[in-house]
User: Fold this.
Amino acid sequence: MAGLRDGDRLIGVVRPPSMLATKFSFCLWWLGGGVLTWGHRDAEVGCLRESLQQVLHVRSSWETFTATLLDGRIITWGGFPGFGGADFQEKLRSAIQVQEADVAVAAILADGSVIAAGDEEKGGDCSEVQDQLQEVQELWATGGAFAALLRDERIVTWGDPGCGATSEVLRNVKQVKATGGAFAFLLAGGAVIAQGDPEYGGDCAAVQDRLQNVQQLAATDKSFAAVLSDNSIVTWGSLPDDTNEVPAMLSQQVKSMCSTGGAFAALQMDGSIIAWGSPKCGGDSSNVQEQLRNVEEVCGTDRAFATLLTDGRVVTWGDPEWGGDSRHVQEQLVHVQQLKATLGAFAALTADGALVAWGKPHYGGDCTAIEDEVKKL
Assistant:
């Protein structure tokens, strides 16, 4: 090689893999390398393995993974719902995001446009708003409607009005959250608009006067929570019957919010955690509260939370079968650098490249099938 002489030293920088998750599966990918997946069989790369090399970036959505290769090609794989014809299914293979409602699917194509298929009344037909669906950045779905965020921070929705669709175009939207039947939109001025099924949080009229200066939103299956600039919390929708008392005020500013199917967790700026909601879904962290110090990040399955501490340890609580009990892998959970969750399992990647997973096996809680491959890389 030009400029090199015998005896010169070369320094190579080895980048660790990055980890992502969909609702059923996990993915490890290497910059300039390939990918490994585990969990639901739909996530297996199979015949795509040879194509999924020289990876530049991978992103995940609710059902699928999308890889951008160094040569510019886009490959999407995962749990494609069987809507639309062969041509539609082929387009999904090169979509940059695929989002699924109960009986419909929508996808963002490389040019920023959107395609949809499935039950026309439940989001499978976007023809009425097709001319507005340009430069789309991200999609969200309830059970029967879709919301698209455009580059200029407008929101366009379509599908069932009872699930959050409306003809009104919202502007200056900073954050979007979705339950099973409603959307909540945080606007630039700190106000919130909710639309959809009231049982799922689609009506916030009862708390509208309190929804001012909102900083962050979070959503469970049927409810929303908003954190205000004064650290107070406002919730609406349908909370589980066994919900713990919702804290009126947090002691610190909130760094981030996380949710399971029936509980919320707020990571405060001092590294502490406040959880509320159904104890069955992680709403009671009292058994591990003393360990919840210096928390760096928090993530959740459908019924459990896991936190990554600054010293690389992991603390979990919630339903044991859904990842809330990590005692059997605790000795392996040291110097953890990445922590991710599917609906039913957690996975952690340590500083020495070890992969640890726990929770429901068919949600990715068992990574033994790829452990040998990970060690070789």
